[in-house]
C-alpha cells in the first residue's frame, strides 16, 4: 500500500508541475503577443518618417524578408529613435492624387 501511495504522490506532483508549467507558458505567450503588438504599432509610427523602417516593413509584408528582420538591432534602434525623436526626420509619405482614380471614383 505504501508503494501505491508514493506513486500517487509522484504522479500528483508531476501533474501539478505540468499544470504550473502550462500556466506559465500561457502567460509567457500572452506577454510575447502583447509586446509584439506594441512594437509593431511603434514600428508603424516610425515608418512614417524613416524610409529604412518603411522598406523593411514592406519587405516583410511582401514575404521577401523574414519577420525576424523587423526586430533586428538596427531596425529596433531606429524604431526607438523614430518614436522618441520625431523632430528633424522628414515625412516620407507624400500622396499625389491620381486623376484616373478620381475619374473612377466619380463613376461609382
Describe the structure.
With 108 residues, the chain is an all-alpha fold. It is built from 4 helices and no strands. The protein has helices spanning 2-47, 51-61, 73-84, 99-107. α1 packs across α2 and α1 (2-47) packs across α3.
Main features:
4 helices
According to DSSP, the number of beta strands is 0
Unreliable segments of 5+ consecutive residues: none
Structural class: mainly alpha
Biggest sheet, in brief?
Answer: none
Q: How many helices in DSSP terms? A: 4
From the alpha carbons, calculate the radius of gyration and give it in angstroms: 25 Å
Query: How big a fraction of the residues is strand?
Result: under 5%
Distance, first to last CA: 82 Å
Amount of helix: over 70%
Mean pLDDT: 75
Shape: elongated
Order of helices and strands: HHHH
Quick gist of this model?
The chain is mainly alpha-helical. The chain is 72% helix and 0% strand.
What is the topology?
Elements lengths: L1 H46 L3 H11 L11 H12 L14 H9 L1
Helix pairs in contact: 1-2, 1-3
